[in-house]
Design brief:
Length: 181
């Protein structure tokens, strides 16, 4: 039996609030998340029996949104622009994951990284293939290589200077995979 619609709404609302709070403070308590979400601790624990369960679900939900966004982007953006926007959002998710990292054991952190790698590289493949078809992105690129190349974007220091550096690095990286057309 599927959960009642109010239970689904509560769960989605808790996840949204948890994402915001945990992005700002990876050490926020579950009680503070419940309070901000306007639900009792029992409601939160019914949906997420542990802090780790909540953190994992926040990250999984964000990765799924990102993966689903790739084909949507291609409906309105050129492949190079879609790739840029997609990697900017991925960098934001990686920063969220870093913020959530303190809440995860090493084994669970490694497992969620492994679990999300395939869908992420599949989404990159969708973007690269679109660019190959329209001639704007070099053919034959490996999504794993592009993901590794783009790692520079989320390894910058926090703050405005880091954000400017991320944009410069993104420009350099994307220029390297374009065809020059």
């Amino acid at each position: 039996m599927s959960p009642r619609s109010d239970a689904r709404r509560n769960r989605a609302h808790i996840l949204a609030v948890a994402r915001e709070i945990l992005t700002e403070d990876g050490h926020a308590s579950l009680n503070s998340i419940a309070k901000q979400a306007g639900v009792g601790p029992g409601t939160l624990y019914r949906h997420f029996p542990s802090r780790e369960a909540l953190v994992l679900e926040v990250f999984r939900a964000e990765v799924q949104k990102l993966v689903d966004w790739a084909p949507e982007l291609l409906r309105t953006e050129t492949p190079p622009r879609a790739l840029r926007l997609w990697f900017e959002r991925l960098a934001g998710y990686i920063r969220i994951k870093r913020g959530l990292g303190d809440a995860l054991t090493t084994a669970v952190h490694d497992a969620v990284t492994h679990e999300t790698h395939g869908p992420v590289t599949d989404a990159i493949r969708v973007l690269l293939d679109a660019g190959e078809r329209d001639g704007t992105i070099r053919p034959g690129l490996d999504p794993d290589d592009v993901l590794l190349l783009m790692g520079c974007v989320w390894r910058v220091p926090p703050g405005p200077a880091g954000a400017r550096q991320a944009q410069r690095l993104l420009d350099l990286s994307l220029e390297g995979i374009r065809t020059g057309r």
